[in-house]
Amino acid sequence: MEDPLKPQGQEQSPVQIRRAEGRDMDALLTIEQQCFNVYYYDYYLLDRRDFEFYLEDAETLFFVAVREAPVVGYILGAVDPGRDPPRVHIDSIAVLPQAQRQGIGNHLLQAFTAEARRQGCRRVTLEVSTANTAGLAFFTRHGFREIRRLPGYYGKGLDALFMARELR
Ligand SMILES: CC(C)(COP(=O)(O)OP(=O)(O)OC[C@H]1O[C@@H](n2cnc3c(N)ncnc32)[C@H](O)[C@@H]1OP(=O)(O)O)[C@@H](O)C(=O)NCCC(=O)NCCS
User: What is the CA(128)–ligand 1 centre distance, in A?
Assistant: First the structure.
């Protein structure tokens, strides 16, 4: 059956999803600057130390999307093994603007949820700004539903939605 989330039409080089590594740092920082330099996330840009923390944290699932060598996107979030079943929370996902709407976010999310499921997680959660129309559309398309609104979560009166999706 045809995958409805797969890009149709123009031919694209294949995208590879692999674990993030220290050598990806420059690319990750570039993605962060290009994807999150918007008014509703300006306190939330990850810096080198944040990425180093996630790279070293054994409980964080951290994948990059690679197309023709450059890293074009990433997803990261930690598994909470203290819960039964363990839960997983997406802290961030981003795809370079010029590589968006080509199914790369979909590939990253699939890799992430497959690994989370393999580790026993039954639910994945995240926060997204109500101002982030692309993010909201992306997560809704992938079956996330609003659990509750978080007033002022991003400061300056900007709210977030706490969203969840069951992993079956
Ligand atoms: C959200 C994000 C990661 C999506 O990545 P992507 O690679 O463009 O997503 P995909 O190409 O896999 O999109 C899959 C589907 O999601 C929906 N979608 C994605 N971006 C959308 C947009 N800008 N507007 C409307 N729907 C969108 C569509 O249904 C899309 O399928 P289609 O292209 O066949 O219509 C990307 O927009 C991004 O990096 N945004 C900036 C960072 C960010 O806001 N991250 C989320 C908060 S942590």
Answer: 13
